Structures are given as C-alpha cells and as structure tokens.
Amino acid sequence: MLEIAGLEKSFGEVQVLKSIDLKVQEGELVFVIGPSGSGKSTMLRCCNRLEEPTSGSIFIDGQRITDIPHRDLDRMRLKVGMVFQGFNLYPQMSVLKNVMLAQVKALKRSKAEAEARALEMLDQVGLKHKAGAMPAELSGGQQQRVAIARALALDPQVMLFDEPTSALDPELVGSVLKVMKGLREKGMTMLVVSHEMQFAREAADRVVFMDQGYVAEQGTPEEIFGAPKSERLKTFLSRVSHGDVEAEAD
Amino acid sequence: MLEIAGLEKSFGEVQVLKSIDLKVQEGELVFVIGPSGSGKSTMLRCCNRLEEPTSGSIFIDGQRITDIPHRDLDRMRLKVGMVFQGFNLYPQMSVLKNVMLAQVKALKRSKAEAEARALEMLDQVGLKHKAGAMPAELSGGQQQRVAIARALALDPQVMLFDEPTSALDPELVGSVLKVMKGLREKGMTMLVVSHEMQFAREAADRVVFMDQGYVAEQGTPEEIFGAPKSERLKTFLSRVSHGDVEAEAD
Amino acid sequence: MDTFIQTFFNIDIMMQAFPLLMKGAVMTLKLCAVVILCGLTGGLMLALAALSPRRFLRWSAIGFIDLFRALPPLVLLVFVYSGLPFAGIRLAPFWAVVIAFFLNNSAYFAEVFRAGINAVPKGQTEAARATGLSGPQTLIHVVLPQAIRNVLPDLLSNTVEVVKLTSLASVVSLSELLYNANMARSVTYNSSPLVLAAGMYLVLLWPLVRVVSRYQRGLSSSH
Amino acid sequence: ETPGEIAPIKEGGYSVALDGTFAPHAFPSLDGTIQGFNVDLAAAIGKKLGVPVKVTAAQFSGLIPALQAGTYDFLVAPTTVTEERAQNLLFTEGFMDTNFRFVVPKGSDEAKYTSLEDFKGKTIAVNKGSVYERFLEGKADEMGWKVVSFGTNTDAIQAVTSGRADANMAGATVSAWAVKKNPQIELSYEYPTGLVWGLPFRKDDAATRNLVDSVLECLKTDGTMAALSEKWFSVTPAKGSTLITPTPGYGTPGFDGYDPTEHEITCKF
Amino acid sequence: MRFLETFFNGQVILNYLPDLVHAMGVTLGLAAATIVTGILCGAALACLRVAGLKVVNFFIIVFADIMRALPPLVLIMILFFGMSSLGLNLSGWTVIYIVLSLVLAAFSEEIFWGGLTSIPAGQWEAGRATGLSRAQTLFHITFPQAARRGIPPLVNRVLATTKLTALGSVIGVKEILSVSSSAQSFSGSATPLTMAAIAYLIIFIPAVILSHWIERRYHFAT
Ligand SMILES: Nc1ncnc2c1ncn2[C@@H]1O[C@H](COP(=O)(O)OP(=O)(O)OP(=O)(O)O)[C@@H](O)[C@H]1O
Ligand SMILES: Nc1ncnc2c1ncn2[C@@H]1O[C@H](COP(=O)(O)OP(=O)(O)OP(=O)(O)O)[C@@H](O)[C@H]1O
Ligand SMILES: [Mg+2]
Ligand SMILES: [Mg+2]
Questions:
Q1: Which of B31, B40, B44, B195 to mutate to test the pocket of ligand 2 (most atoms within 8 A of CB)?
Q2: Where are the domains of chain E?
Q3: What is the pLDDT of residues C57-114, one digit of tens each?
Q4: Three-class SS of B36-69
Q5: What residue ranges carry the coiled-coil annotation (chain E) (predicted)?
Q6: What is this model's ipTM?
Q7: Of the candidates A241, A219, A242, which has an alpha carbon nearest to the alpha carbon of residue A230?
Q8: CATH number of E2-221: 1.10.3370.10, 1.10.3720.10, 3.40.50.300, 3.30.300.30?
Q9: How many Å apart are CA C165 and CA C104, to the nearest integer?
Q10: Ligand 3 centroid, distance to A162 Cα (angstroms)
C-alpha cells in the first residue's frame, strides 16, 4: 500500500534522512519510534510531499508519488490522511465546518453530502454531539479526534499520524488511542509516529526504530520491546519507559 | 510546614474546592493526583494566593497566610516557590536574567549576589552552561529546569509544582524528575500535582487523591497504588496507567 | 509634460525654498519629539486603565479612547487653542498642539498597547507574581517588554501617522514643514516646494517605515 | 456700552493675526518672515498708537475662534464686510474698496471679456470661504457658470494654469499681484462691487474698534495709505476712493455694528 | 456666555445646517468607498505577496512604503493638479477617493501581511495535507485568521484614514470640514466648527462602537 524506497532528504547541508526503505501493507498498522531529531516527522511529511524528498521514491497504492507534478499534488494528498501533533484545527470554524471544508473545496462534494459524511466521521470518533462547537471549546483529546475525523472524511487510503497524543494530558490520551484502534479494526492502513509504547505493544503489527536518519531496527512489537538488538534501541527504550533514570543529553 | 485547613473556593456559583484539609511536613514530598477538573491546580494556586480562597486557612511555617493583607502578599510569595505546567519563562530575557529578576526586584539582592546565586541554582539543575541562552533556544525540559532554578533562587520554604512535566516530550521528562529528586534529597518541602505515577511510587512520601473538590483518599504510595480503597480511585488509576482502555468522559 | 515638470519639479524654486522648508522641518521635528513622547506615555496609561479591573476606571478610559478617536484632530486643535481660553486657560500655540495631539494620539496608541498587552499570556503575569514581584514590577519587567514587541509594527505605523499629523500645527500659527511649503508655494505660484517637502517627509519617515517591515519579516522567520 | 466710547491704548501693545498666504496683503518672503500691505498697515497702526503690534500668521480656520477667545485683539486680514459677518463680528470702516477681478490663462479669449455675462458656461476657480465664492455661487444659476473652490487662492490659480478651470476670481489687488508674479496668466474683467475691506473685532469690543477706526482715518488722511498702495499695488489711489477717504462715524455704514457718532479726525492718540 | 455665542450660535447653526447635513453625506460616501476599496486592495496585495514572486513583492513593498511615508496632501496635489497638466482631469472627489484608498491599501496590506506571517505553519500544512490548493488554503484558512488578528490595528487605521477625508477641503470637495470652514469664514463665527465636530462624532462614534462589536464578534480563542 505504502512503499518507501531509498528515501533521502537534506535541509541545506544537513542530511536528515539517509536512505530509508519501508513498506506498509494494506491494513497494517506500523509504529515508528526513535529519538528526537532522528527524522521521523520528516519521513512522514515526505509521504504526502509536505516536504520534497531529495532523492528516492515513494509509492502509494502502486502509484509513484515522488514525481507527480505540482499541479496534481492536491489530488494525491487526498489519498493520504495526516494527523499532526498540534491538531491544527481551524480556530475560526466550527467543528463541523472543519471536517467539511476540504470535502467541499478539494473533493467537490455537495454541502449536504459533505455534512452527512462529516457527521458520520464525528460519530465514529465519538464527537457527533460537538459538531457545532468551536475548536477552542474542546479539550485537547477532543480536538485531536476531530482532526482524525477531518482526515478520515476524505476517504484516504493511508493515514499518517505524527505524535498524535504527545500534546495531550494523560487522561485524554486514551480516547484518541481508542479511535485509532477502531480504525485498525476497520482495516485502515496506518503509519504512526508515537511514544505510546503500551499502545504499540497491543496494537501495532510492526514497529520501526529510526535513528539518525536510518531505519535502525524493525520487527514485531515483541521483537522490538522484548528483545532489542542494537545498543541504541536498548538505551532508547530504557529512557522512555522509566522517565526518571537518565538526564537528557544537553 | 504547609497546612491547609477547611479550604473552600468557589468561582461564581461553582464550588471547586469543598473543604480541603492537608498537611505537608518539613522535608516531605507530597503528590497530588486526581482527574481533570478536580481542583488540584486551584488548591495549589490558593497556597500562594494566586487565587483567593473563599474560606478556610492556610499556614506556611506556622504563619497564617490567608489573612495577610494585599500589600504584603509579594513578600509572602517569596517563601513559596511555584513551577507551572507551561514553564512561563520570560521570553525576552536570557536564562540568567530570568533567574535573577525576582532576586533583584523582590528580594532586593545586589546584582552580583543575584548572579552568583542564579548560577549556583542553574548548576544545580544542570544548566549553568546555558546561562546566556534565550528561553526559545532551549528544549522544553531545559526550560522547565530553568523555571525550577528561578523559583529555588528565592530560597522558598515550600515548592509547589503544577504538572511540571505534562507539557514535555517523554524523553525530556527524565531530566526534570531528576532535578526534583535532587531537591527532595536536599530536604526541600514539596507539593506536586503530577501524573508521573512511576515517579510518585519511587519518590513520594505521601500521595493525595483529589476528586470533585475533596481529598478523597491519601496514604503512602504503596497504599494508594497497591491497595486503592475507593471505586473512583481504582477507575482513575486504571485509566491513567493503560491509556487505551477507556474513552474520556465528554 | 513640460508644464508638469515646471510646476512640480522646478529645481531653481526648490533651491530658493529650501531654507524656509528646513526651518519648517526643524519645527516639525521639535513637535514630533514632544508629541510622540506624550502620545506614547498617555497611550500606555490609558491602555492600563482600559484593562483595569476597576469598572469605573475601565469605562472612563474606553470612553476617552473612543471619543478622541472619533474627533478629527484639526477640530480638536482649534477647540483646545480657542475654546480653553474661555475657561481661563490660555496656551501658547506649541502647547495647544501638544495637548490636542496628546488627546488624539494617546487614544490611538492606547488601542495599540491594549492589543499588545492582551496578547501576553496570562501565565507570564502569574509566574512573575508567584516569584514575589509586585504588580508594577511585573508590568514593567515582564509584561510590557513582551507587549511592545508584539505590537512594535503598529506602534511605528502610528508614529509615522503622528509625524504626518503635525502638519496641522499651522492652524495655530506654528509654521511647520507643510505650512512653509504652502507659503513658498503662494509666493512662487509653483508646486515644487510641496514636492520638496514630500521628499523631506520621505527622508524623515522612510527609515521608520522600513524598520516596521523589517521587523515584521523578523517575526515571520521566527515562527 | 456707550456709543462713541474710545478705549485707552493697551499698555503692552496689540496682538493681531492674519492668513499669511494672501499676496500682496500678507505673504511670506522665502526667508520666513511675513510681508505685505496689511502687515505694513498693522505696523503703521502700531506706530500711530506708540505701542508694538505683534503680527501672527496662521491658517484661516484658526483665526476667528482665536479672535473670539481673545487670543488676538483683532485681525488684520483683509476681510470683506458683509451683512452676515457683521452679525458676528464688529468691523472698522473700510480701509479700501474691494473689487472682484477675473484672472485667465495668458492669451486666451477670456482675456477680452468685459462683463459677467461673458463668463457664462465657464468653470471658475475660487478660494473657499471667500466672498468671491459666495458671490459666484449666488450667481451660478443666473450666469450658468460652474464654481470650484480651493483651500487657498494659490490653488485656485493653479487650477487655471493647469487647465482645470477657465478663470479665477479674487480681489483686484490679489489678482493683479498674481499676474505680476506668474507669466502663465493675465487679468480680465474687473467687477465693481461697492464692498469694502475692513478689520474684524470681537462683537463686545466696540471701544477698541473705535480706537483703530480713528487710526485708520488718520492713516487715510496723512498719506500713509497712499504710500502703501504705491508700494504694494503700484497704484496711486484715485481721488474719492476709500483708501484715502475717511468714513463718518465708527464702522462701515449700512452694516450691523455701525456707530454713527460724529468725531474729529485726529492723529493724536 | 461669549463661549456659547461663539461656539453654539443658534442663528448660525440654523443657517448652515442644510449645507452641513449634505456634507455629512459626502463624507460618509467618501469614507465608505475608501474603506471598501482600501481594504479590498490591501487584502489582495497581501495575498499576492504570499505567492512569493520576487519582482511583484518588490513593487508591493515599495508601494506600501511610499504610501505610508508620504503625507497624503502631497499625493492629492500631484494627482489633482499634476495629472490635469498632463491632460487627465479627475474630479476632486475621485482624487481624494483614489489617494485615501491607496493609503489605506498600503496600511492594510502591511497589517494583513503581518497577520499572515504570524499564522502557525501548521495551519498551512493542515490545509495542504487535506488536499486544498494553496489558494484555497489561503482563502479559507489562513487569511480569515490573519484578518481577525489584524482587526484592532485595522480599525485604528480605518478611523485615521477616513478622517483624512477632511483633506477634500483643499481641492474643493464639499465634505464636512470644507463646508464648515467656509461657513466659519462667511459667518465670522466659530460655531460651524462645533457643528463639524458634532457631525464627525455622529459619524464616527457609531463607527467606533461598531468596531468594538466586530472585534468581539470575530475574536476567537486559539
Ligand atoms: N525545515 C527544516 N529545516 C531545517 N532543518 C529541519 C527542518 N525540519 C526538520 N529539520 C531537522 O531535521 C532533523 C529531523 O527532524 P524531525 O522533525 O524529522 O525529527 P523527529 O524524529 O520527528 O524528532 P521529534 O521526535 O523531536 O519530532 C532535526 O535535526 C531537525 O532539526
Ligand atoms: N478562573 C476560573 N474561573 C472559573 N472556573 C475556574 C477557574 N479556574 C478553574 N476553574 C474551574 O475549576 C475547576 C477545577 O479546576 P482546576 O484547574 O483546579 O482542576 P485540575 O484538577 O487542576 O484539573 P487539570 O488536571 O485539568 O489541571 C474546573 O472545573 C475549572 O473549570
Ligand atoms: Mg517529530
Ligand atoms: Mg490543573
């Protein structure tokens, strides 16, 4: 479904991604973990060309998206749903309008159709009753679920999540993860950058560990968490799971 | 050291704190947990009168601070260090200036003295080398440690922490908790609102569970986490620790 | 085309008028110095009053701001200069201008400051108060520097306006740049002095305008 | 107030004002000082009274309120005496006649016009708020001309030179001066009005008005006015013209505020 | 009571009221036309600037700088007299309208642009990631936010610029100030000035109140 081959990306002099290869099968949920600055977000953003790859190819559903001309980008992006750490709901529109906007403007759905679909998606994330609310009136967890509904309403073939819960209070994380689990059960293909190890253990089909612009290790959750091979992954896991042991490298 | 007796607080019609009684002994580290909206922040903010209690008394070091007249509030607040979720460093000043400001303006220390003290405190939180940096150049964890240094530099008798790590990336949490652990070893009296259960287990002398404006349960970490009595606490603990099971109450 | 150049870009006439215009420019600068300073100070005070928790103070300040933003400065100036004497207050022209513009500018500046202060997160005040800083200390050391940074472009824009506004001072016989240009024009029957005056305004204000834009670019790159 | 009362001379002298963009009556030299017929007139008044007269130049909109407020003792701007103005201000007797004169582009047909009717259908530029504007507006329907008014007479003349208007109308002296200074225009028809220019005072200050009125009478008879006219207008006043003929009583006869008290003409104050 | 007679003379008020009411209409019309044109042009320029075309942006910046730095009177004189010596006769009303619109366009362009640059990148990305085009994202998402942020300074500018309609008196546009200063001169009374002040208050006080309402209405938490 999603295939990344030899992906490289530099910002000016700095090479952030150094040859990434990664496949996500249809219906698979792949988790990406790794230290800050290892290039997780950049890789994700390359997958819908929010960043332009420096070299390498990315295929979605067999179509090579890395050489699509700019004027066709918008159409391609409809196939890829993306959820950001910061939600990025449009503060000036109601929840319903947030979910409808791209349906009407990019997919050219009729208003009625878009509204029906929006309500359906809001229902799926458990927020149908908040359709009329403004984003600022929602908790972080609710905002993130709206962001998910917004992406889903466009019927994407793949969903990309960039740390969808890291800006949330602990109590609010659960509701978002629950929605993601629901998606998985419905067979959505998902690539998720996140530090929710517990969730990764339970729900992920595969876990990818990125380090310094490479895919350093990958495998089933059991392999990655139960029997990490590289030193770097071991250190990383211990740091993340007991937040208390090591000082951050300054 | 810190004693709260019969504390009540209403915002307009809504009573947020309904008779709170709590004692923190000298050198003790007390953890406050509880669901969102239960009044944890409000209670903390009453302790240095950022909120005015509606009724009840609070004593710090034997002095009743709830009837101090307004003009003496500033002096009282020097005895109580407070660290917020959002760090709230002053973005226009260097790290050093952040830590010096209140020393010079409120404590009337000389610049030289304030600077020496600031550097000492920055050293204690492991950030002496960042004294000249601007807050925006620091990671969240570093910013939070500067905020702690800023409070410590005023030689407070009690430190209050309101979710000091909840705005931090998981990898950055450790460094802040390490600093708090260091403080505990030095005998600082601390009242901490936080969801870092792991840390509470290891470091707290006592854990207080707040619910709907009451102290619903309290005890040693073993009692609270190992043998919770009330239903509410049990549900709360299961929600927080496996973020995946229950949807947030809307 | 030739008449156009003769009427608007006659170098000879510009040279003749230059000393007179320079005199005017000096008066304009003097006025600006005082007027801008007063406007900024007054605006800040008003903004603080408009944000005060005290109802009476707040509403008075808001009323003041709205009233003086609605009155044209020329009318205000004539009233100050010629109305106040009826109340037994006779002001020198310079001070009449200063007072009238103080009323007008501080209202405008107050709106700018108010927006700036509102944009400073509440947490900043709380953090400062929690470390024992007094209200005024918090304002001076923590809130204002950030507020001013938030609205620096607007402050400068407003300042540019004030400079241009000083051309009204001629109503009360202060011969500033524009009035002197008009005088020169009435002697020479030629508009070149006005173009020269425009050039002087440009020299005076362009740097300011540039700073505004530069600053805005700075803001955007830090986002 | 008693008719004919004359105020004592003010110790510290008088503060007077005019609009400084009104050549040849008051206009700047390029070094920034104000000169002109009315400036000299103010000085002559001061000389006769033996006290200083301080002349201030300001934009016209500020003059009248400041006079009313007592900032100025009187105005030395040439102000046409009209019925409406006389209701709010006191005037001295006319110090000179004010005829209206058209100014037109050099070499144009309009230069040969000899009556108001000739200007039918033309666009005429005029100084806003002047009696000329009033006059032209009042006759606009009858004469079928179009009136455009400008902030200053300089602008009105520029409207003629830039082709926005066919003619300009102003006081005869002003028009003559403009033509002298500006090669693009020439004089046309002069319309005799029978109106005069006087100096305005506050309504409640008849005593000072009377004082200055007597000074004007003196200046008219002792040759000062004639000399000023030659200096600024290059015209020797005709016998019987207002410039050299005192008017009986105080003020302008036929207008509000006229005080017919008879008195001797004297130059001793 | 000379004060009352000077500034509130009943006879004078009666005489000039009709003229002044008419002038209020002129001022209002001029102000409304200026506001609409100025803000629309400013918004269009700011949006154009987003496209990032170097040459175009250079001209926008130069335009905005000059319009903000030059006293509008000078522009008015040049456009009114200068253009007619080049054979283009614009009416006084048109000249004021053009110049004030340009000035307001320059200021509002800067305000909108400032607002646009302060919109978090995430908003752009969210729009683009859901398949909206650049123009759509600008139009539906970022510009509305920028405009709302710009409301307070924009209101300031709009008030200041529309009051500049008083410059119309210089070139014979019969707006409030022009009519009142004529009246002042005709009557020899300062009362018309009071009438002008009141006329301005009648127009602008509701405008200020409306602006407060707009500010509240379009304020949203972010
Ligand atoms: N637009 C950019 N310009 C320059 N450098 C960039 C840019 N975006 C990212 N980088 C750099 O690329 C590197 C990888 O960034 P990226 O955001 O992909 O890391 P990450 O693994 O997502 O980290 P985190 O867990 O902190 O989000 C970092 O060093 C970052 O500074
Ligand atoms: N200034 C205020 N005005 C009105 N209501 C307030 C105010 N501050 C807090 N509240 C209300 O008081 C209740 C308790 O808030 P508080 O912030 O103390 O909860 P908390 O336990 O700290 O929650 P969280 O974990 O989300 O921070 C909430 O219902 C909140 O909406
Ligand atoms: Mg990232
Ligand atoms: Mg809280």
A1: B40
A2: 2-221
A3: 999 999 999 999 888 888 888 888 877 777 778 888 889 899 999 999 999 999 899 9
A4: CCCCHHHHHHHCCCCCCCCEEEEEECCEECCCCC
A5: none
A6: 0.74
A7: A219
A8: 1.10.3720.10
A9: 10
A10: 7
